[in-house]
Amino acid sequence: xxxxxxxxxxxxxxxxxxxxxxxxxxxxxxxxxxxxxxxxxxxxxxxxxxxxxxxxxxxxxxxxxxxxxxxxxxxxxxxxxxxxxxxxxxxxxxxxxxxxxxxxxxxxxxxxxxxxxxxxxxxxxxxxxxxxxxxxxxxxxxxxxxxxxxxxxxxxxxxxxxxxxxxxxxxxxxxxxxxxxxxxxxxxxxxxxxxxxxxxxxxxxxxxxxxxxxxxxxxxxxxxxxxxxxxxxxxxxxxxxxxxxxxxxxxxxxxxxxxxxxxxxxxxxxxxxxxxxxxxxxxxxxxxxxxxxxxxxxxxxxxxxxxxxxxxxxxxxxxxxxxxxxxxxxxxxxxxxxxxxxxxxxxxxxxxxxxxxxxxxxxxxxxxxxxxxxxxxxxxxxxxxxxxxxxxxxxxxxxxxxxxxxxxxx
Length: 410
Known about the structure:
CATH architecture: Up-down Bundle
CATH superfamily: MFS general substrate transporter like domains
CATH class: Mainly Alpha
Order of helices and strands: HHHHHHHHHHHHHHH
Number of strands: 0
Shape: globular
Structural class: mainly alpha
Radius of gyration: 20 Å
Number of helices: 15
CATH topology: Growth Hormone, Chain: A
Helix content: over 70%
């Protein structure tokens, strides 16, 4: 119970229930609403507070410990509940509150996943966490798929879908009570994971500021920025309410998260495979594989994107939404499933790379917080590109360039 991997497993289960269900809902496009406006503006508010709280999340975690996960997890319940109110203002406020909770949760998660395991197990720890986390999103995606399969012309999900998500998220919040303090976690060789006493604000402020002078962190900023940027295009454009039928969107969503599990399972073990060479060699292999896959997928997306525009799929424009029974759906769903696979590979590479830089729990939390800060600052920009109705092709080219540049610099 006090082993690093079991603690990573518990964190995975918490994220299975909370961010996993959030991802399942987000992946439907517009969080299941007929319009993406409320979800997009809420997403911007979330990204802004997530950015700030990711930066201060490491100090909060290092000072107060893992108990910050309890209120952090409950913020997910509030967010999903906001869609039952039919108030856009409440949804936007709930998004901002969720940003605070998510900042604290993901910083703690990064600290635990990157620092608890031994050097030889860091890739496997990512695989374990990411597979469990995305199993939550996969099973969560099955809820709207089952509910919406016979939806006819509906573009919104049912109230029962939201309630099911809220119940699962509340259970996840309670699971945080099962985590042990870092000082009680012991590796296989008998070494304690952390012998730190709880930190203080002054020390944490100094250490966080040092990150902005660390050349390793600075050169990785484009890589971090691209790690969630593609969600906006994938969820709100490609899988948004206009292009495809709700039934197709729900099935796409399920396969997206399922392929996350496959990608994480393969790539995490690959990065730990010492037979492939030194860590530096494996880093180069991992980088190359990620770059080749993501470039291929974005080229495919450009070809698909040439077939529709924002104006063409707007309500009342006469666009016939693509359904699962249409012949062109096969290629579209394969592309979308592989979007899920590359997300796991891309983020797995980042976490593994950061994990190779430290075994210290406090420093790992700061690295994770810095990563999430950049990730969400960029996500806020991506959200606003969609909110300002920037052409779909322009959004696609922007994220394509950011991903490629980030991987080349890393």
